[in-house]
Amino acid sequence: MKILVTGAAGFIGMHTSERLLARGDEVVGLDNLNDYYDPSLKESRLARLTPHPAFRFVKMDVADRAGMERLFAEEKFDRVIHLAAQAGVRYSLENPHAYIDSNIVGFMNILEGCRYSKVKHLVYASSSSVYGGNTRMPFSEHDSVDHPVSMYAATKKANELMAHTYSHLYGLPTTGLRFFTVYGPWGRPDMALFLFTKAILEGRPIDVFNHGKMKRDFTFVDDIVEGVLRTLDHVAEPDAGFNADQPDPSRSNAPFRVFNIGNNNPVELMAFVEAIEKALGRKAEKNFMPLQDGDVPATYADTSELNAWTGFVPATSVSDGVGRFIEWYRGYYGV
């Protein structure tokens, strides 16, 4: 198939593109290579993809309406994996407009492109952050997600609503994947694993929020990519049993689905830190700090729906995944 991967120079985008190419798909990778974090890391990821004869890179912002219209009209993609977004909960407190431009305007351009070029399936990145103030664990797609606690979360919930509209009006099959704390080699520098590793190796203390009383459903990137590809190959369909009197937020009488994709095994933050310390052979000096605005104390994915739909089962332990990240980090940065 000919597949558009947006955010192809990003963490998940690079790994996803590699897997698509390995199985024989043609990939057009789109990215704006912005400076939210070190662009040289994005360029290094891209350098892993560009030698492949079935990969082509397009430098463009998804918020570029005219450019996106041309791209879809010229390329005639079979399917789209939309991973480009302004990421980060904390940054959304400082620069909320960036999230509207990329995550709302950009997603609108993706939907319009898919609609007019008759794309057969749009798979897009949502986020565990949509669960916001929910406290019932594990988080289930059948629960309401109407109480976001950050602008980032609000834009991801908006994406799900926008996708449903296009599934309903135009029959566009859409599937949203709510990612839960993805980590692994080539990961983002603003994520905890990267920040902690860098600080420990440099002999600096690490900031541990909510006084260490955090739980995250840390999910290794290879498991995430396996779930993304399985989802791409299982095109969303209308749910014949959908009950409009008691509507389920995760499905519809339109070709629309939303799934959690996580490790289904929340880990205490302090246990995660211990795994890093063990892999590095060093102890961390810790600054214990309060919970930050927009953050939540715990995430935990119920992945039974995705398992039933695609057979997805996460396979990587935190100790193994952290070890593989540390190995990459030491090699990439020569430390």
UniProtKB/TrEMBL annotation:
Q: Where is the NAD-dependent epimerase/dehydratase domain?
A: 3-238
- Which CDD domains does this chain map to? UDP_GE_SDE_e
Question: Please, which domain of life does this record's source organism belong to?
Answer: Bacteria
What are the record keywords, sorted?
Answer: NAD
What is the name attached to this protein's record? Answer: Protein CapI
Organism equals Parazoarcus communis
